[in-house]
Amino acid sequence: MANFQVSPKYITVDGPDGVGTSTVGAALKAELEAQAKKVFLIEVPHEITSLEQRELDRISDQSSPEVNLGYLTVTARVYTDQIIPALSSYDFVIAVGSELKNLFWAILDGNQTTVFAEIQTGEATHNLLPFLRILVTAPSETISENLSKRKNLSAVDPRPEELQKIQSRIDASIQAANLLAGLHPNSRLEIVHNHPPVPPTLPRV
Question: What is the pTM of this model?
């Protein structure tokens, strides 16, 4: 087992697409900044470079575990290039999307054993753990409504009417969070329920 280290400045926000992770991340950043804290917010899935995307597209027709591990490699690179350097310059670093999202996709693809074993090595996160993991969840109907408001849905997004698929993603995100909570008990796991128009209740930092 890797020698994981919990950072008291690092927070992750995860959840299925359409649940409101970006909203929660931005709200938490605003709350901390209102306390005169310097906060770095990054949305990890948006940090894929064109070269990485071409490589992921190249292997997309090959074994699914290779694709899942490819995305985990992207997460590892974001840790190296942005998250770890930011920890030395900011009071808090908030990552929307983390290795939990990688495990979430692996669960959906049936490759959780392979990806979970890789996460256990600590290489993807450089043995770094957040002191707070936030999992955002919502009823499938709420996520469906959020997805219906998007101008462009990606190829991997469920359609708003696919409530069963949306529910399976909610379940997978909870499973991924529980797996990491068991692996990393020193990282506090908080569930945030997003039920617009009521603002989500943010956890205490």
Answer: 0.92
Peptide bond preceding 160 in cis form (omega within 30 of 0): no
Query: Could you report the per-residue pLDDT of 70-81, keeping only the tens digit for each?
Result: 899 999 999 999
* Distance separating alpha carbons of residues 49 and 54, to the nearest angstrom: 9
Q: 35 φ, ψ to 5°?
A: -95, 15
**Amino acid symbol at 158:** P
3-state SS string over the chain? CCCCEEEEEEEEEECCCCCCHHHHHHHHHHHHHCCCCCEEEEEHHHHCCHHHHHHHHHHCCCCHHHHHHHHHHHHHHHHHHHHHHHHCCCCEEEEECCHHHHHHHHHHHCCHHHHHHHHHHCCCCCCEEEEEEEEEECCHHHHHHHHHCCCCCCCCCCCCCCHHHHHHHHHHHHHHHHHHHHHCCCCEEEEEECECCECCCCCCC
Radius of gyration of the chain (CA): 16
Strands 5-14 and 188-193: unpaired
